[in-house]
Task: inverse folding
């Protein structure tokens, strides 16, 4: 244990994803030794992102305004929603230019080991969007790993009574991986060849 | 196939060692505790990504070193493959094949196939069902490396499902929760409990899918092993009762759909006790390969000698299967001859002698049967020298 403020910094850093106690300590001491101007820039960037960037109240994607660029674009097909885990997946799919519908960002995947259940994801918001019957197809583009598959199965079962077309990206994506790591061509093809999900 | 070269860095007792190996028989001879098994254990690791002696990788890294590296040159029908494995205990291992990194270490499985006989094999007969499940699954992976993925997926589903059963409540603040969820955390915190059932149904379907795949592969494997084990056992112990292998499971069927349906039904039946105990009670992780001698189960009834014959017969059957698939696997006999009586020793030696490569460890030269005289390395205090 270190002096209060230093320990405090280490604890805060340790809450970040992918940062264990050892790394938190290393980063903290790096910051202690760093040029004050450098640390100010970092602090400013942190505050600015919280002030200026928010999440689209419709789809949950990162947005500069209340609604994101995609939700505001009238040319995007409102009948098709593509469900992804994270905002970075939206960017990966946008790069393929295969998809002209709208998105829904869940904020993760079901993973009991990490204490993440359906209620920790933006599933309720998704159900609200589907309620008026305007959406005809739901594309489940969660990651091609176990947790992503489980989340897709959960959603498919949940919306089954609504009778809309539920599809899953075609295989060919690297199994066990993250959507964002798939190259554009593979991801584009997976979109084109998406299959009906039967649960 | 055979191993042409083995190089170790910070593996077990070796800071560094380089060994050139030939096809045929090679014996590593030296007093106990000198590092003989450490050498062949490294090759077993290349083939299975696990040690035959310990369940975790930490003891494989030389005391005080951060990681271990095993490099091996494998020759199969004039084609050479250089496999490099970096063991990082607690983290993912890394692998390179012919100097190109592979995305996951398990993509390097299947290039070297070994059958390893060791004193620990007695546990195949006398030990817990887990020993026999590992025997089956390792053999599945050696034959079809994609089963490493099936097994990993199954284990992961099991972990997730057990976590769900244990918590009972889903909405627990976790590290993976996005920061923006924090504000409405309060409102969500108690909402999860009612959801256990519906989420459980999802994990059920995944457990059943991967479980049925594993189960059906094991059932086919046992059918193939049965005559081979019987034949090997009869050769090792001609005067003994016949041996039997029976796969025991909550689900037995012929097609994968069949098995999946049965697993699902068994899960439904076990639901209440699962929720009480917080663990998954149905699936291939609970199964066993039952071994019997005549009318009696081998475990608890077979004599020491019979148990040894049974264990050897299982390994020899694995060897036969792998050989029939094409490509003679490398045979490793770690300190086994010292455990056997003269008759079993000689019969075993005769059965393994024709293999393309046989690697033996023994405390004294007299422990190596006459049928298996070949190249000899002396191993003392970590130095390995060809005699
Ligand atoms: N991680 C390790 N670091 C250093 N030494 C080790 C490690 N693991 C095992 N050893 C040493 O290796 C020796 C055992 O080697 P082993 O190959 O099992 O002997 P044997 O020649 O009897 O087969 C012991 O002296 C043990 O202390
Ligand atoms: Mg030994
Ligand atoms: Zn939006």
Result:
């Amino acid at each position: 244990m270190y002096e209060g403020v230093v320990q405090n910094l280490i604890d805060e850093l340790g809450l970040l994803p992918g940062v264990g106690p050892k790394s938190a300590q290393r980063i903290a001491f790096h910051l202690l030794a760093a040029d004050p101007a450098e640390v100010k820039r970092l602090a400013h960037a942190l505050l600015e992102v919280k002030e200026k960037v928010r999440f689209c109240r419709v789809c949950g994607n990162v947005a500069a305004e209340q609604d994101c660029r995609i939700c505001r674009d009238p040319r995007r097909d409102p009948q098709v929603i593509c469900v992804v885990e994270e905002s970075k997946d939206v960017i990966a799919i946008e790069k393929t230019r295969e998809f002209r519908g709208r998105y829904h960002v869940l904020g993760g995947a079901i993973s009991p080991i990490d204490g993440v259940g359906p209620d920790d994801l933006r599933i309720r918001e998704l159900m609200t969007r589907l309620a008026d019957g305007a959406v005809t197809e739901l594309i489940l583009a969660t990651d091609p790993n176990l947790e992503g598959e489980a989340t897709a199965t959960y959603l498919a079962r949940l919306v089954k009574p609504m009778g809309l077309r539920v599809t899953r990206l075609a295989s060919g994506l690297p199994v066990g991986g993250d959507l964002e790591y798939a190259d554009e061509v593979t991801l584009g093809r997976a979109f084109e060849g998406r299959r009906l999900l039967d649960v | 196939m055979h191993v042409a070269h083995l190089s170790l860095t910070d593996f077990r007792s070796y800071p560094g060692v380089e060994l050139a190996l030939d096809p045929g028989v090679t014996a590593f001879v030296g007093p106990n505790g000198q590092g003989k098994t450490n050498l062949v254990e490294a090759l077993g690791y290349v083939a299975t990504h696990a040690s035959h002696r310990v369940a975790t990788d930490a003891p494989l890294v030389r005391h005080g070193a951060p990681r271990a590296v095993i490099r091996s040159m494998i020759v199969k029908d004039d084609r050479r493959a250089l496999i490099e494995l970096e063991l990082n205990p607690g983290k993912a291992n890394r692998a390179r094949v012919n100097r190109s990194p592979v995305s996951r270490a398990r993509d390097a499985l299947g290039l070297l196939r070994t059958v390893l006989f060791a004193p620990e094999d007695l546990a195949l007969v006398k030990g817990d069902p887990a020993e026999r499940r590992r025997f089956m699954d390792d053999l599945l992976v050696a034959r079809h490396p994609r089963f490493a993925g099936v097994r990993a997926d199954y284990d992961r589903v099991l972990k997730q499902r057990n976590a769900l059963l244990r918590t009972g409540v889903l909405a627990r603040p976790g590290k993976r929760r996005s920061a923006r969820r924090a504000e409405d955390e309060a409102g969500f915190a108690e909402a999860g409990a009612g959801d256990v059932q519906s989420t459980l149904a999802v994990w059920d379907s995944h457990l059943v899918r991967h479980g049925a795949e594993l189960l059906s592969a094991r059932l086919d494997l046992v059918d193939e092993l049965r005559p081979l084990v019987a034949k090997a056992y009869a050769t090792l112990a001609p005067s003994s009762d016949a041996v039997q292998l029976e796969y025991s499971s909550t689900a037995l069927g012929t097609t994968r759909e069949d098995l999946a349906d049965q697993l699902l039904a068994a899960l439904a039946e076990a639901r209440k006790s699962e929720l009480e105990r917080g663990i998954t009670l149905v699936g291939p992780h609970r199964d066993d390969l039952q071994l019997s001698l005549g009318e009696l189960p081998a475990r608890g009834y077979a004599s020491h000698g019979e148990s040894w014959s049974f264990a050897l017969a299982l390994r020899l059957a694995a060897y036969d299967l792998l050989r029939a698939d094409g490509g003679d696997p490398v045979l490793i006999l770690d300190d086994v001859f010292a455990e056997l009586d003269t008759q079993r020793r000689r019969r075993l030696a005769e059965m393994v002698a024709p293999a393309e490569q046989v690697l033996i460890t023994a405390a004294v030269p007299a422990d190596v049967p006459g049928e298996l005289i070949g190249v000899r390395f002396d191993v003392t205090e970590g130095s390995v020298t060809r005699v």
About this structure: Helices of chain A lie at 4-14, 21-33, 36-52, 69-72, 87-96, 123-130, 146-159, 184-192. The beta strands of chain A are 54-55, 62-63, 77-84, 101-105, 137-140, 165-168, 195-196. The radius of gyration of chain A is 20 Å.
